[in-house]
Amino acid sequence: MKGVTWWRVLLLLATAGTVCFIFSRSLRPPAESSAESESVKKILVAFLGGEETFLGGFVSRYVRKIAHFTEFFLLGVEATFLFSGTPARKFFLLQSGFGLLVAATDETIQRFTGRGASVRDVLLDFSGFLTATLLIRLAGWLFTRRRH
Question: Would you say the pTM of this structure is higher than 0.90?
């Protein structure tokens, strides 16, 4: 099959693994999800110097949002490289559609587990995905310009 290489297969598996991880977190019951977030929050806040520091206070308030942004940022990195062989016109539509589909599906799953789902969370997730995409594309563009 043309265009299939070992690294593309590994990238596809990593991307699928990230999607499974994201969905598995959304399948958790509300109490279990909250307890997990609370334990991660305590570790991060202690590492950042406590809630009295700017970063510690920020993480304390927004740990769940930061986690969602980070998960989707990773997914965006993987998807950017996965779709890298796609013609430029289709690249952004395919990749963005994929990121938005995963974000919307993630929030939909949460509705069935007794947790809330919101358009705001879909946008937050998608912004993590899109941020990764744009940063990698910008870095590639700057690298190409520097070589010339």
Answer: no
